[in-house]
Amino acid sequence: MAVVLHMRPQDPPVSWAEFCATREPFAIAVDGYVCAGPRFDPTGPRLNLNHHEEVDRMATRASCAQVLMALRQGLAACFRDESGFHAEVYANDCDEDVCLSWFLLKHGSLAQHSINPALNRLVAMEDTLDATAGAYPFPSDMPMLQEMAWVFEPYRTFRLSGELDRRQTSAFVGVVEAIEGRVLEHISGKGGQLALDTRYRRIGGGPTWAMIQEVGAQAKTGAFADGVRCYVTVRPRPDGNWTYTVGKMSLFYTFDVPGVIRALNDAEGTSADSWGGANTIGGSPRIAGSRLPPAEVERIVNQVVARGARQES
Prior knowledge:
Blueprint (H helix, E strand, L loop, with lengths): L1 E6 L8 H7 L4 E4 L8 E3 L4 E4 L13 H10 L2 H4 L1 E2 L2 E8 L4 H11 L1 H4 L5 H15 L11 H9 L1 H8 L8 H19 L12 E7 L2 E6 L4 H7 L4 E7 L5 E7 L8 H12 L7 E2 L3 E3 L10 H19 L1
Parallel strand pairs: 1-6, 2-4, 2-6, 8-9
Antiparallel strand pairs: 3-4, 5-6, 7-8, 9-10, 10-12, 11-12
Helix pairs in contact: 2-4, 2-6, 4-9, 8-9, 11-12
């Protein structure tokens, strides 16, 4: 068996055509490394497991849930050479979805059969939370959320510290390995719990949306508990740029996420490493971040919101 992680935090998302043309057989891209919806190339074989671009976000499984389904529906029978299961796994992030996707691929024997309730529950919860960007109304005192907070603490600490934006390969791999160990402890009943930190600051916005800066690791849970349904999150980067997430709780709220993303990308003037996302959530360029300051982002978003309101009236 050969399952190899190619962590490439400085690689901007590539097209499916480029991935197939330049990556070896048995290559699997996870969670936005390829900027396209789920794809399968049987001639490689090659696979893209993604729920960021070209999808209905609410109707598409998170990458880890796609991995779990693929493993239980014959992935290992296809991605196989003379030594057994073979996967060359490509990622440019180390968030919860990537870490859990990697765990499932590396420990496929634990995932192929639906006999581990703890693993099934962890993937199902992460699927729901990641697909909605944390905007799912689980009660904040739910024990499973506290268990997940412990499992994924290495990433949350890494992200809030600003280290995520330095894009250092060894640091990203360290996060993946730390979470891999915690998942193993969790599913064997030896994991811990961590109280949720839902603190955030509202620093701007408009009548129908909020611009927030996350303080705690579960800040979005706190914002949604306070009634925030449409938002832009802001995080300063060590290089002076900014990381933004643009989102809404579901399709049923009037906030044109794709329109906002297009307007911000036009203002940014980027092409390869660009603003992107799906119909309910998107964000700033994954590698370089955004040079647009929060005040300018707020102005652009309010322009898009106002234009949409005029069209509706």
